[in-house]
Amino acid sequence: MSVIRSFKASDMFKFNNVNLDIWTETYNIGFYLHYLSRWPDLCCVQEAPSGRMMGYVIGKAEGQGSEWHGHVTAITVAPEYRRLSLARKMMSLLELVSDETYRGFFVDLYVRCNNFVAIDMYEGMGYSVYRRVREYYGNLGVGKGGRDEEDAFDMRKPLSRDSARRSVRSNGRDIVVSAHDVS
Amino acid sequence: MSVALDRQIRPIYDALDTGSHKSAITECNKVLKKHPKNALVKALKALALVRYQKVEEALVLCDEVLESKPTDDSTLNAMMHVLRGLGRHKDMITMYDAAYKKQPTNEELGAQTFFANVRASNWKSAQQVASKMYKQFQEDRYLYWNVMSNVLQANDNNTPVEMRTLLYKLALRLITSAPTPSSVHSDRFYLHLTVLRELSEYDEAMTLLETPAGRNICETNLACNEIRRDLMRSRGALEEEGKRAEQRILEKGDRNWLEFLSVIDGTFASLPESKGEAHAGPSEDAKEQCSSKISNTLALFTNISVQDGRKDRSGLLGLLELEHRARRHGVSTDTVRLLHLLKRYFETFGDKACCFEDLKPYLGLEGNDLAAWTEVLQACPSSLSTVEAVQRTINSHKLSRYNLSASELTVDAETSRAALYISQYLEGLPLGRNFPTTELQYVDDLAILAGSVFVNLWKMGGDIKYLYKAVVLLEFALSKSEQAFQIRLMLIRIYRLLGAPSVALEHYRLLRIKQVQNDTLSHFILSRCSTFSLAASGDLTLTSECLESSQIYVSNSQETNDYVIRAFSAEKYSQIPQFILFEDWLENSLQRDITKLEYLRMRITHEVISSDIIDLELIELKFVFDRLHHDNRDFEILPNYQPKSVEDFNTQTLLFGKSEGHGWVWSFLKSYIKVFSQASDLSDVVEEKLLVGDRPQISPKLGSLKERLARREKEEMAELTPDELSLISYTDALTEWLEPFHDYVRPPASVVLADVAKNTELKTGLPLRGVDITPPLNGHVKKEEETPPITDAPEDLIKFFENMKIRFEAAKNAGHLNEALHIATIAQEAFLLFVTETIRFKPASVVKIHKLGNLVAKFKPIRAVGIAVLKEMTIALESMSTQEGTSERRREFVDACGFESSEIDHDSIMNIIKRIGK
């Protein structure tokens, strides 16, 4: 439960309680404005009744032909608002818009291979691993995750337009590509 | 262009792309030897020169190219970058305008002309260009560009109010004339709705919203849905909106809190929002009607809360909000419902971190209610064996602390609270024993609570030992939970209170503040940082911190505008006003200029005060003085768990108990502008001639500079510390005293300009543009009038340093280190401003020609006292700092902390005090 509204440029003045968390990157101004100037309907904020920011999602639509899809670039929830299913709600909004407004075939996202909590959560939402991308992330230098820390799973969920479920495959975890091969 | 020439130009682009400006210039010169008239190469050379900081030379080339009225893409493009670099947006418009006139069928040129106007916020011309483009190219988007320009012009501060409606009407007429309906495109639809809302054309808006396309858009587009909701509210259709929201909640399982608020607003629609006491109160009829609706909503939310259980908070929170509003309207029928709901909420969601924040608005309890509620909280078993239990314990502490009355806030009571929180903290800590360093500990908030109590204890009696206790505890907690940024922020505040700025800075750097956060969070370290600056002895840590954190403003002015253009290209009209607002807030950020002033205050302590510094800073300060500031500073980020009966944590931990706001900035700006403009030879005439680039738009409401400088408002002064206040009256007295003499001695504009022209020519080998003055024959212009009568220095000025000395002694003897430092810094600043004010009268020839010997004689004693006082302060400060650093003081500190827990050991306390001592 929270207020769900569109992400506004001036939210950059308000997102400190979300972004000071180590897992959330603060990008340059241009990053946020770029997304807002192209896909404002794929960027949304969750706010507590007090007006405090709880989390946000930033997404885009991309790809050619049957690869046309919605992509989750960043999704984050402030530490004090975790375990309230906020991410789930933001994801379903992004799926709705990718489906109805953009008519994409699927939604995809990248997640660190060692982030089991997140992977479980996405699987619960209907996502599955499409491929493993080698060295997608820089090393955080914190854990001993080894390869799992730097590699990403590209996870996908088909939308209504992909009724034949061509955008997913069951052996995704075994398909490894290098970071250069993905956009 | 010939292939050969093309081949020669390529390396220029390459050099520019890789940032080798110097070799780009060399390449340009090579080509220009053979093709001295080539506009593109000239433009590229100008660009390289601008980037190489050779502005004067760039200007000459730039003007040559502009005169040739280029039309080819590459030259225009290069020139666009040159003109942007020079801040000459108006010239950019002229350039594109001319090019587009020559080739009216060139769509790209039309778009660039439009964008040039957008960059300069020249909405009226933008609108004309868009209109011309629509006629020529018949593309709907140009029609909407025109609409958007109208809307932006209407929103512009400088547009008279009576014009606004007219502009919106024009915009509406344009939209309705479009061949395709706005609803084919969600952002066009959004723009259409904005225009209708501004014109209060609600019926027309509703018709649009009721179309299938309109409904579809609102279903998936949050921005459009937001404006739809807004429209419903504006037209007073709260009930209708409430019904719609109810349907969404029931049928779609929507749990957006906005829908719940709509239901509640609908419930109370028949009762007017009570404003003030003079309100007559609603009629009995209206009350009755409302009561029946309340019971409906009550049933609805109750069902949802039962159905959702612990899955979602909306139902229960909705019930709380409903009861809260009913009480506010005086239509609540159940005296115990609020209490019951609070209790139920705490039982259901007490183990969620957000429970306290959720309940905070509803905690205004009194009397028996409060007693009963406190009982509920106290009954909460303070178990720390599971994560849920820890969270529940934390929430019960936060909730009961919030309502503590003054009588419950004694030193003893607070001390035992701190002890309880700490023991629970230590008890619960093992729950996160094996966490990686990236995880937050479950018990962090207990440490935050205890730290807050210590700060409150310090605030109550002024005993500094409580700050030491807070530091030790919070440092310990941070060592167990390295990513706990809230703890770090608290520590930064406390270290600054303790006069340990370098430790504070260390923590600040560990927060990895980036990008726009430099604007919202740098106040933590830069607020009044000149107090702690060691710039005078060569340590530039804080000055460079100021420069680094100010980089974001450069990025903003260079980049943000581009995205406005991009939003136009991509037709994302909903974003354009937002981007402009964002750019404006950052450009005119209050923190930006607080930082600027602190930087300047530190700069004059370590650089030789010369006319270069004075002139440059003066120009900048005058720009700053014309800004309408916006405060983007984030204070909310500091946790606050202080009782509502006392100041919040932020206020409690402000350095010198005062927050700098607009008033502080105005006060210091006025003083510095007064002093610098007297010391400078730059008059308005000279400035006008020499300034490159466009001037900022100034609101005519502000009044003349002189009037504005003279005004000192009470509210402005209220933001100053007593010593800052003395500095302000000191500078006022100083500038008032010396003004006539400065005006008498300052060379006339013609002499100054001739001087500058001569220097420029020496430097660039080219005459200065736009300045055509034959220098006067003998450099000195004979003064017609007599030397103004020499007056005695005003009392405020003579006594200033003595007074500061007395204040310094008092602070020192009371052991207030920070305050002593503050006073000494202000005294030093006053002295440096005195130096700045008197530079002009230094050369013996000036004194002789203008017969100012008697005046200069009056400077001497003031100077001498100033120097003596500053020396004494320096010696005193030095001895204070050695005393603080002794092992004896450390011993005292450890004793004062009085931590005897086995967890927080002696060594780590010792480490902390050593760092403070530094």
Automatic annotation (TrEMBL), chain B:
InterPro entries the record matches: NAA25_NatB_aux_su (IPR019183), TPR-like_helical_dom_sf (IPR011990)
Signal peptide: none
Gene Ontology CC: one annotated term: NatB complex
Family as reported in the entry's similarity comment: Belongs to the MDM20/NAA25 family.
Name of the protein this chain belongs to: Actin cytoskeleton organization protein
Organism: Lentinula edodes (Shiitake mushroom)
